[in-house]
Amino acid sequence: MPATLTKQQMEFLQSIDTPTVCNIVEMVAPERRGHGYTVRHLFCPFPDLPPIVGFAKTVTAKAKDEVALGDYMGKRLDYLDYIASAPTPSIAVIEDLDDEVGYGAFWGEVQSNIHKALGCLGVVTNGSIRDIPMIAPGFQMLAGSLAPSHAYTHVEEFGVPVTVHGMKVVSGDLIHADQHGAIVVPLDIVDRLPAALADINAREARIIKAAKEVGTVEAIKAALKG
Q: Are 144 and 101 within 8 A, CB to CB?
């Protein structure tokens, strides 16, 4: 049965940024402090878009080597069925396998519009993107680079485990992403995250208040200990 989120769970996750999600995930699951998120910079052309929350559609792609169109078309059509399949909404997580990563851009005006129509909210990729002014409105992109050409870009496999900038993802994982990067959110801890957020907000408010209103090392130490 495909993974799902309740409306309340989805709205909660959409209301907070990705760094905050990282903070509360590690509070609830301390073993996740050192992994499960992107660890290198990803270019975000639309930093003002709100966070996106969706289920991973995992893909590997290449662009450097030519591929026979006849051999590829069947796989391309099957790939579209995969993107459109449950669970939704989705986020494409694409690992570029070329030895020169980003050699050709899989993502541009056409792909963003196709994927958006099929319930995809955005993409997280170590590869390249292009056509920034023509991207489908509201479609978020986190990418390793910009490139002018699509070269011979093509899907290698889909529904397979991928790694993008240190974040290991399997098909169907819950992804939270914004201008800072992306994180895999374990479904089994989502219900515990709101309480963790309330706790961390209270702690941070004490520390910030001590810094702004008192400003002494003693007051800051006391707030940290508290």
A: yes
Q: In angstroms, rounded to a whole number, what is the distance separating the alpha carbons of residues 55 and 186?
A: 11
Q: Is the pLDDT of residue 73 over 80?
A: no
The pTM of the full predicted model, rounded to 2 decimals, is 0.93
29 token code pair: 């699951």
| 97, 65 contact by CB (below 8 A) | no
Predicted local distance difference test score (pLDDT) of residue 69:
66
Per the prediction, the chain carries an average pLDDT of: 94
Upstream peptide bond of 87 is cis (omega within 30 degrees of 0):
yes
Q: Which CATH number fits domain 7-188: 2.70.40.10, 3.50.30.40, 3.40.50.150, 3.40.50.300?
A: 3.50.30.40
Distance between CA atoms of residues 103 and 127, nearest Å: 8
Angle CA(16)–CA(171)–CA(113) in degrees, nearest 5? 70
- Both tokens of 9, joined, read 């769970």
* CA distance linking residue 43 with residue 35, whole number of Å: 20
Which residues contact residue 111 at a Cβ distance below 8 angstroms, ignoring those fewer than 6 apart?
none
Condensed to tens digits (0 to 9), the pLDDT of residues 6-62 reads 999 999 999 999 999 999 999 999 999 999 999 999 999 999 999 999 999 999 999
